[in-house]
Amino acid sequence: MPSPCLRLLLLLPLTLPFATSAQADEDPLHLQPLTVTGTRLARDPGDTAGPVTQIDRDSLLQAGNQSLGSFLQSLPMMSGSPISSSVGVRDSGGGFSRGIESVELRGLGARRTLVLLNGRRFIAGGNGTGGVVDLAMMPLAMVERIEILKDGASVEYGADAVAGVVNVITRDNIEGLQLRGSGSMSGQGDAETGSLSAVFGQRLGRAQLTAGLEYFEQQPVSKGARDFSRQLLTVDGPDNRIVADGSSAPPHGNFRLPSSGERLTLIEGEDGDAPGDFRPWISRGENNDRYNFNPFEDLLQSARRQSAFVLASQDFGPQLTLFGEALFQQRDSATQLAPLPFFTNRLDGVSVSADNLYNPFGEEISDARRRLVEGGTRGFSQDNSAWRLVLGARGLLQGWRWDASLNQARNRVSQRQFGDLLRDRVALALGPSHRDGNGQAVCGTPDAPIAGCVPLNLFGGPGSISPEMLAYTGLNGLRDRFENEQSVFGANLSGDIAELPSGPLAAAFG
Questions:
Q1: Is the pLDDT of residue 292 over 60?
Q2: Fewer Cβ within 10 Å of end Cβ, the chain: N or C?
Q3: DSSP character for 301?
Q4: What is the pTM of this model?
């Protein structure tokens, strides 16, 4: 559990050489001090602690984005490669985009950009292990404005604000019912997205109530549907020619022989029963043997979100205001992946035995690679539900601003992956095998057969892996569950300690 912390901030006023008292007396403009993102101190709006960019609701809607995350990712101050539902999954196993939307400032990673909602921390999204806030959890219908601090704020907020802060401010002045709908599609007639929202607000005396619902849906688009993503490309040779690229695990196999170190692949049309059925593997160049997995993967993921929120406040005068926030979101997302790339060298203790029934080389192969096209495309789906509840109070006490709040949130994720293999069963299926008296392929030796095991044929090219082989080694659904819970109690006190010649000495405790 993180230990409680106490922070003290001081603002020392300085007299600038060009600011005279006569000029100050002649200036009729008096600005009300505000608390802005990046400091707990109330100060003039033009005297902020760092470069703060404010984006109002009109600008947010005019941009045409249907989610908060997609809008923020388009801003010029954002950098890096933020996670997005429109970023496909790399075949190399680099990780799923998980259907969430994140941002990062200064290229330091999304975990170093702090995301706040009304100045308070927001729970991490996705599977919860990365500590990254999913901005898609915040309905666009409830956003009034966004404050972005493009400078480090670790003193005020902690180490996760090293790159900067994104503070989302909610709407609190709605009267009546507001309905909004939007939709879009690509010029090719696909990539349909749509959203519907209803927000109701009512002021009853000194009480304000705002409630809303939002629904969002996004249809998938395959990488194979676009020319720019249909083929994976790379540069090759001294003249940097652009050539086709892909995975080193093709359907015809890629096998490294320990005796010679040579890599071989099956000649198309051969059955793989003898060493002469194989030729040297071509790794680079225009006619390489790499497998282009792009046409099977999603460029845009399928996603569906439902959100509900309630914002309430009761004003008892300058000394006391009670407030509360409640948010619930349900998200379902899915991604299609290329057929499984199988690598024995990535599985501890797995190799193709020299005595495997289908091994034509008569030597143990620890580096065998094969695209299991017989199993079809893989799939990854995620069911994410999250809620957040904030209760607090704020006010003025003898000229000092104070606030206290309790922030409780929970994010639960159930995710499922299809089309993978069980390592223990693969190890048995690639181990020693033989044919019994009935001509059936059996795992193990004649003296020690393994009941129920079906030997796996990696050498026969596309179609050589039978449904029985997949049924034994395949895992139809790998299910994982994650839960992320957040509890934050915060209290702050700020005001002026003393009046100095050039202005007040301000302090904040929290």
A1: yes
A2: N
A3: -
A4: 0.79
